[in-house]
Amino acid sequence: MRNNLLFLTVLTAALAACGGSSTNAGADTAAPTEAAISGAVSGMPTGVTVLLKNGDVETLAVTGGGVFTFNKKVAAGLAYNVTLVTQPSGYNCNVLSGSGTVPQGVTSVPTVVVTCQPAALAFANFNVGVTVSGLASGQSVTFANGASVLTVTDNGLYLFADNYAKQAVYAGRAGGYEVTVKTNPIGQTCTLTGGSGALSFGDFANFVNVQVSCK
């Protein structure tokens, strides 16, 4: 009898151990996932840029239409919301299927559709942005373009709030721009590529993307 009781005790303990191991394995396979938010832009000619943003997470420039993918992924269960930063000069664009919640277990949400068509009334405006790389964690860098000031605390694409007119004169030129570093990050120096120039009426371009390298 004592031998039978001992056998049952050992068997019960072994089954409990197996059950615990199975539960942990299931938890491991259900680890949270992240998905890239992507889609396509149609109706835009070569040289014209659509500026998109995913909530407050990231801004993305898509030039000439085609497929796009945001660099920063969104975790399963969290929301994404792709919208236009502004209407591109001379065009009206609409975002379809731009918002939702990332499902569990997927690595891509490729459903965003941006359709554009020429506007009935076109204004010759353009945006100016900076794409920052090399900025150390916890640091910030401040830029100026005329009276417009922009402070950046992370790497990526960021836009000056103003919408510039090609007919306006700045830096001695119609449609001119001149981006400078107002305040460097502590312990780093940021250099600009393509920080000054001008856009003319005959130029389809509606976006200036200044490259910034911080070291």
TrEMBL record:
Lineage: superkingdom: Bacteria
The keyword Signal appears for this protein: yes
Record bears the keyword Signal: yes
Signal peptide: 1-27
UniProt keyword list: Signal
Name by which UniProt lists this protein: Lipoprotein
